Amino acid sequence: MKPGLAKRDYYEILGVDRDADADQVKKAYRRLAVQHHPDKNPGDKSAEEKFKEATEAYEILKDDEKRRTYDQFGHAGLSGAGAGPGAYGGANGFDLSDALRAFMRDFGGGGGAFDEMFGATGRGRGHAGPSGGADLKVRLKLSLEEIASGTEKKLRIKHLVHCTECAGSGQTKGSKKTACLQCGGVGEVRQVTRSIFGQFVNISSCPRCHGAGEIVEKPCVQCRGDGRIEGSSTISVKIPAGVSAGNYISVSGAGHAGPRGGPSGDAIVLIEETPHESFERHGDDILYALPISFSQAALGDSVIVPTLNGSVKLTVPAGTQSGKLLRLRGKGITHLRGFGSGDQLVQVIVWTPTGLTSDEKALLDKFGKLHGGQPPKADRSFFEKLRSTFKG
After folding, report:
1. Cα–Cα dist 207/250, whole Å
2. CATH 1.25.40.10 matches 279-391
3. N vs C: which end of the chain shows fewer Cβ within 10 Å?
4. Model pTM?
5. Candidates 2.10.230.10, 3.40.250.10, 3.40.50.10190, 3.90.1150.10; correct CATH number of 136-273?
């Protein structure tokens, strides 16, 4: 959305009535998302903007609470409430990585809209000629360290490969091919239906020759005329920094080989995040819990804390309260689109000792009488402070 332009109505974007139910909203979004998805429209900025716009509308209208707020107050009611686009894209608004993440969350599990783009017969291939191979979906688990800086992975995949005996043709050497009688050698069959709305023509791949337009006289013994056998390959996948669970990377031609010499599909590598033992991810920021003693909290101290790329020194100010968040700028996840890095938030946890000796108890009792102060009343909950820290 360019500065100065009014935001379009979410219902208008999805093309649904204001009383549309959740299923109608989801179907409308799915149709638009598949149509304008960046992977189907490479380099088309207009399609990318429409994809982001449709996803933003879907994210609001599918959520009952956000939808009620929007219906009552419009776009202004969502600003700063953790419900609008700023909740996904920060200062830059709802960005492409947010939109892709939302799409993959609801439609990336196989089938449905996902297969409309990465279908069983390969993407963007017509019916004439040998059918394309299916895309292969591969799940790749990454650590936060790998996600923070980007990495390159070599994956061993099992897929259908072209038969080595017949070079993928599906026929015995020296044998002939004849034109398919069912489709007349064009590889397509047409079915005409008529209704009160007119005549409709359905064009599909020929079921007898599988789109090749030819029939093998003597099928290859090894692949039984299919032109493919089970095999395995090693592929290299470059993972950019900042990816999230649900993002995917396409490796062209690394999917299943097409039957009888048909082109291969792609390998669709779906990203998964491995839970970290020390850090918790929040977008491009990461959260780390730091236990300190009461004396460190009261007097202040300099401590060493781990980050995703080595340890650093952190100053704990005197009088630090338990639950306070200290910020290490730029020590989080690199943004997927290269707009800098997130921060590491260090949550201070004041450790309370147990099993005190009589001398230790006496000292603490004396301190309590000398200090004489009472803890202040909380004006905001810790979680509200945590939310405001992430927004800032």
Report:
1. 29
2. no
3. C
4. 0.58
5. 2.10.230.10
